[in-house]
Amino acid sequence: GAGVSQTPSNKVTEKGKYVELRCDPISGHTALYWYRQSLGQGPEFLIYFQGTGAADDSGLPNDRFFAVRPEGSVSTLKIQRTERGDSAVYLCASSSGYSRNEQFFGPGTRLTVL
Amino acid sequence: KQEVTQIPAALSVPEGENLVLNCSFTDSAIYNLQWFRQDPGKGLTSLLLIQSSQREQTSGRLNASLDKSSGRSTLYIAASQPGDSATYLCAEQTIIQGAQKLVFGQGTRLTINP
Q: How far away is chain A from the Cα of B57, in angstroms, using its nearest Cα?
């Protein structure tokens, strides 16, 4: 079956611009996660959705970052007034939310802020 | 604060050798431990997940163990092949007030030399 998909695969933008990153989870997965990975580092948690609601947004670095999941499936990560330090790979994962809660990751979106 | 450490940061071995990758974590309230593989420029592929009630999991040439009392997990790769070259990441998951997230180590970059 289809895995987690993310679009675009690459995004280049200028400092100060607004960007949206999209994640399509595995069908039927109720839990969705966003992580950010800088070069040479492990991914860092940003936000977790259970259904439509954000159950934990403690990893969002500041109020320029926002994410939604209006229908409990597709999610969009939104970054306002982008800064060069936002450049990273943004990873999305989904899980069934049941006992094993194994997370499956998408290929990521590489964001470059010039 | 949850912390996950992976040692060594990089490892290079000749083809055919058996090897062990190490992962240590600080949070004893672990829910599960997940091992991933990441190829350059790609997303994360889940290799093995060990629930807190388990001590090990096996998949083909891979075996992962979990020792909660010492805060350690190991990934054993038997009869290594050049195709095993990748970065291996371990991640700890705890559940606090219903919120679920993975905390990653920085990874071990593995090179298998033909």
A: 13
Give me the residues of chain B with pLDDT under 50, please.
Answer: none
Contact B43 A59 (CB under 8 A): no
Closest CB from A100, A104, A107 relative to B51: A100
Amino acid at B88: Y
Residue the block writes with tokens 């499956």: A104
Span A76-105, pLDDT tens digits: 999 999 999 999 999 999 998 766 778 999
Q: 10 Å Cβ neighbour count for A101?
A: 18
Mean pLDDT of chain A: 93
- Asked whether the beta carbons of A53 and A67 are under 8 A apart, the reply is no
Is residue A25 within 8 angstroms of chain B, CB to CB?
A: no
Measure the CA–CA gap between B29 and B38, rounded to whole angstroms: 26
